Amino acid sequence: MNWLNKLERKFGRYAIPNLMSYIVGGNLLVYIFQYFFHIPMSNYLAFVPRLIMQGQIWRIITFIFIPPSASLIFIMFVLYFYYMIGNTLEYEWGTLKFNLYYLFGMIGIMLSGLLTGYGTSYYLNLSLFLAFAYLFPDTEILLFMILPVKIKWLAYLDWAYFGISLITGNIYQKAAIIASLINFFIFFGKDFIDYIKYHKKYDSTRRNFKREMKKYNRWR
Predict the structure, then answer these.
(1) Phi then psi for 137, rounded to 5 degrees?
(2) Is this model's pTM higher than 0.85 or not?
(3) Ordered structural domains, the chain, with CATH
(4) Which of 143, 141, 161 lies closest to 151, judged by CA?
(5) Taking a C-beta distance cutoff of 8 angstroms, is the pair 50, 117 a contact?
(6) Cα dihedral sign for 83, 89, 94, 97?
(7) DSSP states of 138-206 as a string?
(8) Which residue, 14, 60, 81, 165, is the most exposed by fewest CB within 10 angstroms?
(9) What does residue 216 show for φ and ψ, rounded to 5 degrees?
(10) Distance, CA of 89 to CA of 84 (rounded, Å)
(11) What is the pLDDT of residues 53-64, one digit of tens each?
């Protein structure tokens, strides 16, 4: 990711440190207003192109502060989990690269929102988890606070969920999923291509070896 390193040297001073703290804090605040004071904050924060064109330009950012619909205990767990993986990614990559990862995901959601009329950050947060699992596959977490599970197995379930949703979901879900994974493939797409090339070369070498061994055994 040489181009990211160049961007970091040039624009690193403009990056927002501890970005995930602000995002998680915003989600928690919106949750409190919605579920304790019954104020429908999502109606004023969601990414709705029609309303943005009417002047509500804050919606191009505020949609990332809409929390998932869940119980208080679950939302606290989810927000803490995203806070943890977000801070870990920022520590691993540096502030600007983490900012860019989230920004690319936001841009993807905006593009899908312009096509479908609505955008959601739900799948964007899942893409954070995929990035964390890719970098730290053997990290263990306690599932249901009891069972130790390596993060890579949960990532496989996440990918399966994406795949099933792409097949069975409506146009809004499909667009949101594809858009939310743009950041993941920008950062890790080259690794996947290199992996495929390596295995293709390995398979070719193995086939050639077997072919030569058959010739050798035939002429012995």
Answers:
(1) -65, -25
(2) no
(3) 2-7+17-218 (1.20.1540.10)
(4) 141
(5) yes
(6) negative
(7) T-EEEETTTEEEEHHHHHHHHHHHHHHHHHHS-HHHHHHHHHHTHHHHHHHHHHHHHHHHHHHHHHHHH
(8) 14
(9) -65, -45
(10) 9
(11) 899 999 999 999
